[in-house]
Write the structure tokens for this entry.
Amino acid sequence: MDEQYYDIERRTAVKDTARELRRKFLRYKDAEVVYSMTHKKLLELAGKAGAIYRIDGYVLLDRDIFDEYLERFHEPATE
């Protein structure tokens, strides 16, 4: 029973499946909630990331591109 919690391959498979199931594109209102950012800051960062899609009056944010951009700001753990 304990092995299932420590099986790295299984955990990786679950994370990959969850990533496939989540929505690839978000509207700004949804993205503001997901990323806990104000509209202005989200617009600024999404523009810099190149993650904005404008289609027939809708503005969508590509999560994969935006997440990859946000990883640039990740700080390593301190001791």
Notes: The first helix runs from residue 3 to 6. Strands lie at 25-27, 52-55, 58-62.
